[in-house]
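Figure caption, in words: inputs first, then the predicted bound structure.
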Amino acid sequence: MVISIEKFQEQGGRLKTDDLDFEAFRTEPLSPHVLRCLSYMHDIEYQTVLYTRELLVTPAWKDPQFTAFLTLWNYEEYWHGQALGKVLALHDWPAHDTRLTAMRSFNKRYLFWSPAIFWLLGHGVRKFPAVHMTWGAINEWTANAAYNRLAQIADHPVLSELLGRIMRQEGRHAAYYASYARDLLEGDPRAQRVTKWFLQHEWAVVGSGDVPKLETSFAAAYLFGSGDGAELVDRVEDRIDALPGLAGLSLVRSAIAAATRHVCDEEGSVPLPPVRVDATVSR
Ligand SMILES: [Fe+2]
Ligand SMILES: [Fe+2]
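Bound structure (fe (ii) ion present):
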């Protein structure tokens, strides 16, 4: 059953950060590899509003529960972007509007057409809601895994606390999308077929196309290409496999392998994240 918006809004809202000691990043800065991943995540968080622009031209606008979800979801993702931007700015890395303006210019051709593309998909493809609900669940699960792994790699007390708070919200987003996707896929072979087709032919790691492909590849390969990253990907795959009719796609695993090849081709190798003896990924 789809999670009601009353239940969804019980927790969440603006990410609390005012009690965090951001100045600690000045004395104990993050590594350039971690900052590169954070830059990518910052961009993706802020990109949510443009994805919402696409969803709202599909017939999904007719469902007041879903538009309420989109409103709250966007608000929460915006504050994730703000918080990550603050971390970047404290390292004197570009953040907020500087990056977003560059990003929208980088992708301007697609962004010009994307509402038209989504209007066509939404009105021309029966069962399209099952596709975008499943898509949303997968992207939230991978975001959650990425933050989990990044906190482990960076091993920085303030960053870990911040990412832990973000992860709790990503978990709610994933649960909402997955509950909706499950409802639409259950007992509907056509919805399952259409969703499977879109995932196999169109799905890519979130951000592909929105930011230079190499940045998406770097984050995917660095975070998930080694160590506990592979275990986190397995967990995402298990969740996808558990959705009705979607077993055995191995989407994320294949995407990580392709991202690793891409980074190796462009930069020679993927840097190995530090291994911490006492590190455990959050369950
Ligand atoms: Fe987020
Ligand atoms: Fe999210």
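The pocket of fe (ii) ion (ligand 1) is lined by residues 45, 77, 80, 143, 166, 170 (CB under 6 Å).
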